[in-house]
Prior knowledge:
Elements: H1 24-29, H2 35-42, H3 46-53, E1 61-64, H4 74-82, E2 90-93, H5 101-110, E3 116-118, H6 127-139, E4 146-148, H7 157-167, H8 172-180, E5 201-203, E6 210-212, H9 228-244
Helix pairs in contact: 2-3, 4-5, 5-6, 6-7
Amino acid sequence: MLPTTATTSAPPPLPAPAPGEPHAALFLALGYMRLPELLACWRVCRLLGEAVAGDPLLWRRVAVEPPLSARMTDEVLLKLTARAEGTLRSLHLLGCFRVSDAGLLRIVEHNPCVTELCVPTCTGLTGDGVMKIVQLLHEHKGNINRLRLNGISRMSKHHLDIIMSLMSNGNPQVEEARSELFYNHRAREVLNTNDERPIDVDACPLCTNVRLVFDCTRDDCMYVPSDPLSDLFVNFRSTFLNSLSWF
């Protein structure tokens, strides 16, 4: 009698979903969806809505872009971020002009472990408000390492210096990265945070206004030797511009 060869048994097929229930693969895809898709899935059916609303991992990163930006208020944003149950790590708001300092501060109070805060062109925020938020995270031993503040109202060099000192406390790499000033503008800043910049703005050396700073990306332009005549011209121009503010 010939020996029988062992045969590998095929894995059992996945149980078919009950009629009207979402496929199991859809639940796996939730983690790759952006906010509009998540909100749409929330309203599809009861099971899918419970999966979206009840999983804090889906809400650890919240990014609000147009057209949702115009509808985002303090209360709506607070409800969305509350789904993270205090584990929010990254909050990106692009042009959410209805979000205020007080509303954002409440969100950070409930989520003291935020590491990324990107709020470009959120004109309802101010330099004082952002500074208080960074101070709060610093007091709670937070580890915020990335800020995007272009377009924030009344942001001064004083605010920026305090923010940078809090961010660089115990982390010299933050101050080192700021000194390089190797900034590249991106139109969709809210989703592009792969760079290592701690902050996207700096004080202009001439007028001291806080704004985006751009450097030439050519290698031979990264180092500029000190020129006494050039330094004299910069100082003269700065003094001249400051004198104009008196008229």
